[in-house]
Amino acid sequence: MPRIDPQDPTLKDLQGLHLWHAPMSSCSQRVRIVLAETGQAFESHLIDLEKDEHASAAYQKIHPKGLVPALVDDGALIIESIDIIRHLARRNDALAATAKPELLEMADAAQLDLKLLTFEFLFRAAPPPPPEVAEAFQARHQNAWLKQFRRDFAAGFDRDRIEAAVRRTDAGFAQLDALLADGRDYLAGADFSLADIAWMPNLHRMDLMGWPYARRPHLKAWFDRVSQRPSYRSALEAWEHAQTVEAFAAYTAKRREEGTDIRSFGGLED
Q: What's the pLDDT tens digit per position in 117-138?
């Protein structure tokens, strides 16, 4: 269901739009892009994922899965990014009219692979947390799947799991590339839509990893086009820390030299 009953009753008293989000969260990015495209003002509540603020008891009363983003609109709580952008698009006739459920569902399904690949090819650049920090996360967070994911990451993802995620991602990109092969400007047709917004952060994230977009020329042209939009710059790029982006670039280059970057998986260089 798009709306859920909040565990924190004070949320019902909030007026206007309130967004709990993180700068580099791809799901947060798509929500901020919709807000920028529609010109809707919102109260920003930043969640520092590096400090595990999403594992706090207070935040998990807002988002029971302990993830970002979460949106409150005049007391109504919505916690899934696709549901959030659909909700926000209702206030904009152009975006609401061009929503394509199958493309939104496809983008939503891609998130698990995006998360795994992000952790493997970007976040592994950072040193592991001290044991007491990792243990505190396991003790405080209520999301069993996320806790297991963190344990798997600490132990090292096996190659088959990474290979599968890369192959599924490439298959999805091939699908999008085929859609764009008819000369359309945007994923759903002639007009910019929620489908474009849902996929923009994913393409950006994979670009940080050095994804070989030359193999999908129509998709690359689309990404070059949508990344020039003011909303991409203000709602995605402007929230990123330059130091973090530079660290990602250095780590990607290092793994490229070692032959262990994302291009060495999933047959991307075949």
A: 999 999 999 999 999 999 999 9
Query: What tens digit of pLDDT does each residue of 135-172 get?
Result: 999 999 999 999 999 999 999 999 999 999 999 999 99
| Nearest partner of 56 among 47, 69, 44, 46, judged by Cα | 47
Q: How far apart are CA 117 and CA 122, in angstroms?
A: 8
Decide if 33 contacts 237 (C-beta within 8 A): no
Nearest to 198 by CA among 94, 120, 108: 108
The pTM of the full predicted model, rounded to 2 decimals, is 0.97
Query: Using CA atoms, how far apart are residues 239 and 24, in angstroms rounded to an integer?
Result: 7
The first and second tokens of residue 78, run together, are 């919505």
Spatial distance between the Cα atoms of 19 and 62, rounded to a whole number of angstroms: 11
- Residue 189's DSSP bridge partners are 186
Q: Delineate the domains of the chain, giving CATH numbers in brackets.
A: 3-97 (3.40.30.10), 101-264 (1.20.1050.10)
| Cβ neighbours around 64 below 10 Å, total | 16
Q: What's the CA gap between 138 and 155, in Å, rounded?
A: 14
* Cα dihedral across residues 124, 32, 20, 99: positive or negative: negative
CA distance 96 to 90: 5
H or E, element range at 93: helix 93-97
Q: Please name the residues in contact with 243: beta carbons below 8 A apart, sequence gap of 6 or more.
A: none
Closest by CA to 65, choosing from 130, 131, 20, 102, is 20
**Cα three-residue angle 188-193-194, rounded to 5 degrees:** 105
Query: In angstroms, what CA-CA distances link 39 with 34, 171, 244, 266?
Result: 8, 34, 28, 40
